[in-house]
Design a protein that fits this description.
Blueprint (H helix, E strand, L loop, with lengths): L6 E5 L4 H14 L2 E8 L8 H8 L5 E5 L1 H13 L17 H15 L3 E3 L8 H12 L4 E3 L10 H10 L16 E4 L4 E4 L29 E8 L2 E5 L2 E2 L2 H14 L4 E7 L5 E7 L1 H17 L2 H20 L5 H13 L5 E8 L2 E8 L8 H4 L12 H19 L1
Parallel strand pairs: 1-2, 1-4, 2-3, 4-5
Antiparallel strand pairs: 6-7, 7-12, 8-9, 8-13, 9-10, 11-12, 13-14
Amino acid sequence: MPKAIKKVVLAYSGGLDTSIIVKWLQETYQCEVVTYTADVGQGEEVEPARAKAEAMGIKEIYIDDLREEFVRDFVFPMFRANTVYEGEYLLGTSIARPLISKRLIEVANETGADAISHGATGKGNDQVRFELGAYALKPGVEVIAPWREWDLNSREDLMQYAAQHGIEVETKKGSKKSAYSMDANLLHISYEGDILEDPWNEPEDEMWRWSVSPEEAPDKASYLEIAYKNGDPISLNGEALSPATLLETLNKLGGENGIGRDDIVENRFVGMKSRGCYETPGGTIMLKAHRAMESLTLDREVMHLKDELMPRYAKLIYNGFWWSPEREMMQKMIDASQQHVNGSVRLKLYKGNVIVVGRQSATDSLFDESIATFEDDNGSYDQKDAAGFIKLNALRLRIAADRN
């Protein structure tokens, strides 16, 4: 017998899977269901989810526009660390989950719910991310994961359940449903399944939604300038923009120039390898620009220490430990490093490439032309000093060579 649950908050998209979960929760747990729908910039209208929930008898319906909070409090802090998982993945799906978990718990507290529920499968990372976040924020909360409990194991099973329970299945005239499992937010869109399950297959060009192929991108380069304050982008081409608007604009500019496509085989936290394709045009631009800004303003050893810690930080986010004490500790260190990351970066976008063509900081640059110059430096740097520096660094090498 399922554990007695009075009220559950469901992460609800309005799609087939979560609509079936609503009915399944009502039947299986005989509980009240509260639906929660988050707009994190997935590019689809979220209001239709309200009508669908109402049609299923839901009385408490929550719909939030989280786009600004998502970029300001989750994407930007992550990009301060130049975060990349396994050398390629910019963590577009991973970074949205802690925010949704946070809001699920807040809604549960507000409505007096004793459980939350999600539609993540038992094979993926998202179940871990949602639940680690929930337990970190509300240790005693119950979590219901239908994909780990029910016997609906195929698309056909879901369709039969929907038909038996009068759940509407939308089919749009003249539109072809994507064969891929997709997840989108303001940072990226991901694709899995269908022909991608064979890592030898090249993705179909029509799969990509946000970008043109580099071959089809304009023959003329696009230039842009991003201004930074304390490690975060604050303006584009001289115009101050909110975090969400800035990222949305970079997505458009990057997509038009064939930027941000990636095809990855990654190591899931649950143990298997998974092949996915990602479009992250704005994030790809921001990563390049931020590193360029740091190259001018960060101390060498601070920069190197950040680079050494970044893979650990990336793994924490990928695995769902955003709300862990170690991530929060690392974030404080990362944020402290950004106080001097101020200035502007000029970039050229051309056929899938992001090329840094200039960087400047009127207040925090550590680049001293009078020292670095190949011309006469008027005594700013005495080249004779390098001899002793080299001899001291060579000492242990010479001792080891004599021994051998």
